[in-house]
Structures are given as structure tokens and as C-alpha cells.
Amino acid sequence: MAEEVKMLKVTIDNIPVEVPQGSTILQAARLIGGDVAPPAMCYYSKLKGSGGKCRTCLVEVSKGSTADPRPMPKLVASCRTGVMDGMEVKNITSDRVLDARNGVVEFLLINHPLDCPICDQAGECHLQDLSYVHGKEGTRYEFHRRTFDKHDLGPYIQLHMTRCILCYRCVQTAEQVTDGRAHGVLGRGDHAEIATYIEKALDNDFIGNVIDVCPVGALTDRTFRFKNRVWFTKPVDAHRDCPTCKGRVTLWQRGEEVLRVTARKDQWGEVEDWICNTCRFEKKKASDWIVEGPSKVDRHSVISQGHYVGLQRPTEIFSAVHDGRSPKLLMDIHSISEVNRPEVALSAIPGPATSATFDTDKKS
Amino acid sequence: MGRKLLLEKADIPGIRSYNVYRQHGGYAAVEKALRMTPEEVVEEVKKSGLRGRGGAGFPTGMKWSFLAKPAGVPRYLVCNADESEPGTFKDRYLMEFLPHLLIEGLIAASWALGSHRTYIYIRGEYAWIVDILDQAIAEANAHGWLGKNILGSGFDCQIYVQRGAGAYICGEETALIESLEGKRGNPRIKPPFPAVKGLWDCPTVVNNVETLAAVVPILQLGGEEYAKTGIGKSTGTKLISACGNINRPGVYEIDMTISVEEFIYSDEYCGGIAGGKRLKACIPGGSSVPILPANLLLRTAKGEKRMMTYESLSDGGFQTGSMMGSGGFIVLDEDQCVVRHTLTLARFYRHESCGQCSPCREGTGWMEKILHRMEHGKGRMEDIDLLWDIQRRIEGNTICPLGDAAAWPVAAAIRHFRDEFAWHVTAPEECLRRNYGLAQYADELVSA
Ligand SMILES: Cc1cc2nc3c(=O)[nH]c(=O)nc-3n(C[C@H](O)[C@H](O)[C@H](O)COP(=O)(O)O)c2cc1C
Ligand code: SF4
Ligand code: SF4
Ligand code: FES
Prior knowledge:
The complex is a heterodimer.
Chain A: E1 7-12, E2 15-20, H1 25-32, E3 58-63, E4 76-77, E5 87-90, H2 95-110, H3 126-134, E6 151-153, E7 157-159, H4 169-176, E8 183-186, E9 193-196, H5 209-213, E10 219-221, E11 234-239, E12 248-254, E13 257-263, H6 277-282, E14 290-294, H7 318-321, H8 333-336, H9 355-363
Parallel strand pairs in A: 1-5
Antiparallel strand pairs in A: 1-2, 3-4, 3-5, 6-7, 7-10, 8-9, 11-12, 11-14, 12-13
Helix pairs in contact in A: 2-3
Chain B: H1 18-23, H2 28-35, H3 38-48, H4 60-65, E1 75-81, H5 90-97, H6 99-113, E2 115-122, H7 127-142, E3 158-163, H8 173-180, E4 204-208, H9 209-213, H10 215-221, H11 223-227, E5 230-231, E6 234-235, E7 238-244, E8 250-254, H12 260-265, E9 279-283, E10 292-293, H13 294-298, H14 310-313, H15 317-320, E11 328-333, H16 338-352, H17 358-375, H18 381-394, H19 402-426, H20 430-433
Parallel strand pairs in B: 1-2, 1-4, 2-3, 7-11
Antiparallel strand pairs in B: 5-6, 7-8, 9-10, 9-11
Helix pairs in contact in B: 2-6, 2-10, 3-6, 5-6, 16-17, 16-19, 17-18, 17-19, 18-19
The complex binds flavin mononucleotide, iron/sulfur cluster (2 copies) and FE2/S2 (inorganic) cluster.
FE2/S2 (inorganic) cluster is lined by residues 40-43, 51-57, 77, 79 of chain A.
């Protein structure tokens, strides 16, 4: 008989949710979804021991639990902090959290090369998303940025250490998904680097997954290098009968040509199933695959460019978060913009939206 | 003369060897402990009021009583001998001159905690001390104080010495445990705490060398008697490693009843400021704790004499106080530059950050670069506020306290010496030629 799991009640940004005992604050927040879910640059639900490092998911615990209502003095990493019954958490309703998170973004960016125009990750980069939502315009950092040489880690993967944010996901992936880790972190502090011991090639049936877990463009696919910008390619879900992995992938196509193969990712940007190197690097013909249809793309993603099918309409939760008060911390773009209007369903507009699309609407 | 409980026998010729140590009453604490139950030993340590000597000052007896004791799972005691904080060198003295005192304390503590395999994790640079400890352990084994069935009590215990590889971060208890397990010394994310899941995922207590050595006088005297030395919650004696611009740098055992002023100026301790100069500032507890200008060092904000106790050193919080920390007492005379000094510390923390969390990894380097610019006459007024903002966003937002330890020295330097930072900006040429001097910090001596 399976033991009954105790459910715990937790309130995050004034929204109550029930989660099974043993859940973390981040998991609870993801159940609520939307902006209540803290950004996570290092945590990865599929990797044991991940999280706790990047500090982007910091939240304020304003009430510890029903049994011990004292607030926690420090902000805590929501990805590694367990939920207690009756806990109250503030994420986007806490100025402290937003300030600390803004600080973390600044720290992550000071040594980042900001070479998005020539980075293959641009367009699906979590650091871009994070900076856009939580960062500031401009920088206060005026020194040389730390740089490293590029390294080819075998025939398939290129390491651009200069872009790495040391989330350790690739290390954990190699440890847990492949049958032998050949790379790790060398050195300490801001001079620490992802490296193989004496220029070893990473080769292993599943090592390609490190490319998918890397939140930035530090690990990229050499077979896709500079071939295209991700937003010009069209993602479709496809599968094949693979002896090594489940063979469930996303193909990134331009016309009929398959430019890139990746694992399918969920709404948090995490892979659904690990895929093998053969599927990822060797099967680049549309005829290798059985196509299922367009992949679901997040509404914020540049990949959708406003006209991609499969967009999910967001649930508006700001007023719930703010106890019915009008938003203070987040700019309500609808109220200040002439163009963006909530009553216009963007996904319903065929093709790219132009000002004309909205003009006609406005006159009504 | 203050009371000495640890270094009392340090001057006896040959005390490093087992025979001499034993002749002078050594290992009596183990005999006593083994006649008590482990719980009784923990109780004595609780009564003694002993607080951890590694930096945080957490009550040791309480820490020991938190140790989880699931059936069938081994428990470990780990002695933290990593001692890498700038300014702190007291454990080195203790291990070098009184190795058997530490071994004796370790055996008694191992009995109290039920640790059959006890480890000393020692900083790699203390290579010669490893030999001293290994020899002491061999002697203790040869005389039946270690090994199987110690003194017929049925208790088995062995002590192993493990060398670190030169990283300050491996002094942080969970990084130490990782390193001891043979991994990269990254601090773990807590909870779980070592008391529940430590070495090889088993319940573990990590204590400082001095803390564990103090178990010996506690058992000899009894906890209550031990607690009679000192003031308030600062019981017993504390080793202070004094350095900087003083006449008599060295390791001193104080009984936590003396004032800071007495410690600096009395001939029994530091013997006053070297070269007849005046006192400008001091870091009383190792490089991580806030620096204090002379006036706040000698008297608290309330105007009371500041004492060498945990409570008094932290009186006024970080606004006007500091901390006992690990007892690394660094004295700066009137010729020292606080900006350069802060830069040196910032460089240390930048170099020693393990690099796991973004605020510490990136923030420490950024602070160092700004301080470097200011020290070299290229700073701007906004840099002071920028530094403040950076340290503020590191503090409290990291996995381990190294982030705080990197932030506090910068914060305290700006808090108390802002005008000196500003002078580096307004007089960029002059600051390369001379130091700022005392300004308003120095105070007339509280008493002659
Ligand atoms: C970066 C860092 C370095 C530390 N280094 C040491 C050290 O070298 N020796 C030590 O005893 N404690 C050190 N500590 C404190 C330990 O984490 C731990 O609190 C201590 O060993 C507990 O012993 P105690 O209770 O006897 O003081 C360090 C802590 C931090 C955050
Ligand atoms: S290379 Fe990518 S996945 Fe690996 S640690 Fe760096 S940012 Fe993380
Ligand atoms: S605070 Fe610094 S030293 Fe501590 S875990 Fe984070 S990066 Fe490492
Ligand atoms: S996602 Fe929680 S600390 Fe990185």
C-alpha cells in the first residue's frame, strides 16, 4: 500500500496552493505558474542536487509555518528550500527579493561577453530572458571582462567558457545521464572554469544533452554552429524509433531542411526526455523522422514572432498576486501602451502584427 | 596574570612528547571521560558555557546535543584545523607545541559523540604539523589511548589526519566535509546540516581545534568551575593571535576578563604599538570581522570600556561594534592605509571564493577592481557608494558565509573610514605619496 502523502498549504505572493510534503518553494510556485514562479538558472528538476547556486530564485519567507510563524531572516533559494505547512512566501511582492534578484542579474552580467549577436543561443537564452525581466538598462561595470579561449570538446560540442554562468548543470548531467563524466570545474571564484582534464574530448552516447541543459551559449552544437538564428527556424515535434533513447525530439527546420535537433523542452525550458547523440547529431534529414506537428512555444519567445501556432494564452494573475491592488512592481504594459491592448488576442492575428492591425481595432 | 587553561604547560621542555605530557597530568581527562557516560560529558561541556572557537561562537554543548543518533549509522567527529583566515594562527601554535592536548580532547569528545573514526582536517601548508600530530597519534596508540577497547572501556576510536590542498574555503565546515570525502571543496547547501547529514551522509560534528582542546580543562575542572573564568557568556579562556603594528606579536591566552586596551598596551600581551606610534584601527577577530577605528575599539558607543569578550566586542552590532570571530587580532598604526588594507582583504576573498554562487563569485572580483582603482588614485566619488551597493547585495544572499566575510570588511571600512576613501578621490596624487593618517579616529587612552 502506498503511503498517503501529506499535503501542505503554502501561500506564495498571496496565492494559496497545496503541495505534497517534500516539495520545494519553487515547485509550489511553478504549480501556480506565471510570474509567481521564480526564475531558475541553475536548478533543473531532472538533475539531482542541482540548484542553490545562481541565487536568481531567492524569495522571502515572511512566515515560516503555522507551527513556527517566525519569518526567515535571510532570503532563501526557493529551489532548495522545503515547504512547511502554513508557510507564506513573497516573490514578486517583495521589494527585497526584486532588489536582490536585480543584483544577481547584474553580477551574472558583469563578466558575460554580451556577444548575443554572434551567439547561437540568442533567442533561446535564459540569461537574455532573465536580464530582460529583472535586469537594468546599462551597466555599472567598467573593467575588462574575464575571457577564456574557446575549446572544442570533441567533434560535436564547443565550449565558450567566457559565456558560462557556472550553474553546474552540465557537470551534473554528465554525472547522472552519461556513463562517465569527463569534465568538471577547475579553479575557484571568478577564475573557475568548466574544463576537461588535459583537453579530453567529451564523447559518450548522451553527452550532447549538456547543450540542452546549458542555460546560456557556453555549450553549443558544433553541427549547428552559425548555421542560422533560432528564430528563423521552425520547431516541430518529431520522433523516430531509436535503439538508444526514446527518440522524441524537436526538429528545427528552415523550409524542409533540418538544421538542428534538440530534446523537447517543457514550459520551464527543461528537457522532457534525454536524447542520444545519434538522434541529435546524425539524423539531419527530414526523412529520418516522423513529424508530429508544430512544437508549443512560449508566448514570450522570439521564436514565435507573433505568428506561430501553438501559443498558450497566459492566465493574468497580477491582481490576484497583489490582493486586488493595482500592480506596483510590475509595469502593466497594457495600460501605458498605445499598441498593446489586452482585448486583442495576439495569437489570433494572422501573420506579423503591424500598427494597422491595432488601428482598426482602436476605432471601434 | 590571567588564568591559563590551555597553554599552561606549553613552556615545559619536551611537552610535545607523550612521556612528558603524561607525567604532567596528560590524558587524565580521557580517564575521567571514560568513567562517565557520553551524555554526562556532553552535560559538562554544556555547563562550561564553551562557545565554538572557530569563528561563529556557537555554544559547543548545544551543538553536540543536536547530533542525530539514528541506530546503526556511524557518527563522526571532525576537527577543523584548516585555519586559513588572514590574521589567525592560534590553532597552529596549539597543535605545534601541545599536540597531545588536542589528541586528548579529541578522544574525550569522540567518546561523548560516539565517533569511532575521528578526523583532523589540517590546512595543507601546515605540513610539518602533520608530522607532529601523526607522531602524537602513534604515541597515543602505543599507550592504549587509541585503538580498540580503550582502557578496557569497550570504546574503539582512531584518529586520522587529512591534509587540505590550499583553499581557505575548505575551512567552511561543509566544504571541509566535501574535501574530506575526496571531492572539490564546494560548500553544501544547507539544510541538511552536518549534525544530520555530514561526512558520508552520516551525522557529523565539526569543531575547531581550540574548541576541542578546551574539552580537556573542562573535564579536569568540571564544567561549572571552568565557567567561573570569564565574564557573562564568554566563559573560559580564548587564544588570541595578535599581529600587525604591535611590539609583541604572538599567540596569547586570555581569560576573557581583560579590556581591549589592556590587551594592546600591557607588556604581558601586545606591549603597545610598535615604534611608539599611535593606534589607528584594529580588526579584533580575524580578517572577516568588521574593522573598528581606535575610538570605537577601546570604548563602546555607550562609552564603556570595551572588553575582550564575545559580548563586548560585538556590542553595538555592526554599526559600532565588531566580533570575537576566530581571535585573529590585527592592529593598524597611524601610518597604515585603510583603503589599501581593504584592497588586500578584497583580493584575498576574490581569490578564495569557491565560485558557486553568483554574488560571491562576481561581486568579490568587482569590489577588488574598484578598490584597486581607488588605491591607485583613479577612483571616483561614486565608487564609494558603488562598493557599498555591491557588498550589500552579496551579504546574506550566498550559500556560505564566505560571501558575508567578503562583504563585511568592505562595509566596515566604508562605514568608519569614508573620509579616507573620499580623500583618495580628491587627492589622487597625494594618496600615492603618503597615507591619510589618523584623522579623527584615534582616542586618548581610556586610562594610562
Ligand atoms: C570561509 C570559511 C572558512 C572557515 N575556516 C575555518 C577554519 O579554518 N577553522 C575553523 O575552525 N573554522 C572555520 N570556519 C568555521 C566553520 O565553518 C565551523 O563553523 C567551525 O569549524 C565550527 O567549529 P566551532 O563550533 O568549534 O567553532 C570557516 C567558515 C567559513 C565560512
Ligand atoms: S557550461 Fe553551461 S551548463 Fe555548464 S556550468 Fe556553464 S553555464 Fe552551466
Ligand atoms: S559564498 Fe562564495 S565561497 Fe561560499 S559557496 Fe558561495 S561562492 Fe562559494
Ligand atoms: S535556481 Fe535556485 S539558486 Fe539557481
